[in-house]
Amino acid sequence: MEDEKITQNALKALLYEVVTNPKPGLVDPADVGSHPDMDVYLFIDSSLSIENYFSQAVKIGSRFDGGDLREMFAQLRQAGIDAEKAMFKATNNVNTHKGAVFSLGLFVCAAAYCRGHENDDEFAVIQQMTAGLVKHDLGQKHETAGEQQFLKYGKGGVRAEAEAGYPLVRDVALPFLAQTSGDLNSRLLDTLMKIVSQIEDSNLIKRAGNLEVIPWAHEQAEKYLCLGGYQTEAGKELLLELNRIFKEKNYSLGGSADLLILTIFMGFERGII
Ligand SMILES: CC(C)(COP(=O)(O)OP(=O)(O)OC[C@H]1O[C@@H](n2cnc3c(N)ncnc32)[C@H](O[C@H]2O[C@H](COP(=O)(O)OP(=O)(O)OP(=O)(O)O)[C@@H](O)[C@H]2O)[C@@H]1O)[C@@H](O)C(=O)NCCC(=O)NCCS
Ligand SMILES: Nc1ncnc2[nH]cnc12
C-alpha cells in the first residue's frame, strides 16, 4: 500500500501540474501555450504511459541494499530509457515528459529508498545517486539541448540540478509552497513563478537561443510575486500578459514545469498538500 501511494503521488503530481492554469507558454486545459503539437489530453496519455515506470522505480528504491547509490541510479536509468520509449510511443514522438521521466523517476526511487531504509532525506539520496553525473554525461556529444548547452554555455542543466540534490525544490519551492494559502490553483501558480524567478531553464534558453532571456524571466517572475501573485487582480493580469508574450516569442518553461511537478510530489510526500 505504501509503495502504491508513492506511485499514485507521482501520477497525481504530473496531472496536477498540467491542469494548473494559466501557465505562461505551457500547456494547460485552457491553452496549449507555445506547444502547438501538444494539448492536455496528450499529457494525460503521456502520464499514464509512464505509470508502470514509477512502480518499477519504487521497487528499485525499496529493494536496493548496496552501499553505493550510484548503482541504484544505474538500475533506474535502464528503466528510464524504456519509459522514455513508452512515452514517445504514447505521444507520437512528442516530448511531453522527458525531463519528468528523469527527475520524477529519481524522486520516486529516492522516496521508496528512504521509506525502506529509515532515511528521511530524499534530496541527499538523489545527490548520492547522481554523484559525478555532469562529468560522466556531458562534454563529448552535442545531440540533445542539454549536451549542446553544456558545450556552448557551460551549463549542466537538469543533470547539474540532480547532482546538487535539486536545491531549488528543497530550499526554495517546497518551503514557498508550504507557506502559501488559498485555492490550490493559485498556490501552484505562485510556486511555479517562484521557481521561474530563480531557475536557469534549459528549455527556455533553447527556445530563446540566448542566455539573456534568463534575467528577463527572473525579473518578470519577481514582479508577479511582488504584486501578490495570482490572488491579486494585478498579479493575475501580469500572468495573462506573460502568457501572451511567451506565446508571441515562442518561449516555454518546460524545466520550470518539471520542478513544479517535483515540488507537488514532495508536497504530497511531506503532507504539505
Ligand atoms: C538527462 C536527460 C533528461 C537528458 O536530456 P537532455 O540532454 O536533453 O538534457 P536537458 O536539455 O538538460 O534537460 C532535459 C529536460 O529537463 C528539463 N529541464 C530543463 N531545465 C531544467 C532545470 N533547470 N531543472 C530541471 N529540469 C530541467 C526539461 O524538460 C521539459 O522540457 C521538455 C521539452 O524540452 P525540449 O524537447 O528540449 O524542448 P522543446 O523546444 O519544447 O521541444 P522540441 O519541439 O524542440 O523537441 C519536456 O520534456 C519537459 O519535461 C528539459 O528538456 C535524460 O533524458 C537522459 O538521461 N537521457 C539519456 C537517456 C537516459 O538515460 N534516459 C533515461 C533517464 S532516467
Ligand atoms: N504543462 C507543460 N507544458 C509544456 N511542457 C511541459 N513539460 C512538463 N509539463 C509541461
Automatic annotation (TrEMBL):
Pfam families: CitG (PF01874)
Enzyme Commission number: 2.4.2.52
GO terms (BP aspect): prosthetic group biosynthetic process
GO molecular function terms noted in the UniProt entry: ATP binding; glycosyltransferase activity; triphosphoribosyl-dephospho-CoA synthase activity
The reaction(s) this protein catalyses: 3'-dephospho-CoA + ATP = 2'-(5''-triphospho-alpha-D-ribosyl)-3'-dephospho-CoA + adenine
Extent of the signal sequence: none
Keywords: ATP-binding, Glycosyltransferase, Nucleotide-binding, Transferase
Similarity comment text for this entry: Belongs to the CitG/MdcB family.
Protein name from the UniProt record: Probable 2-(5''-triphosphoribosyl)-3'-dephosphocoenzyme-A synthase
Gene designation per UniProt: citG
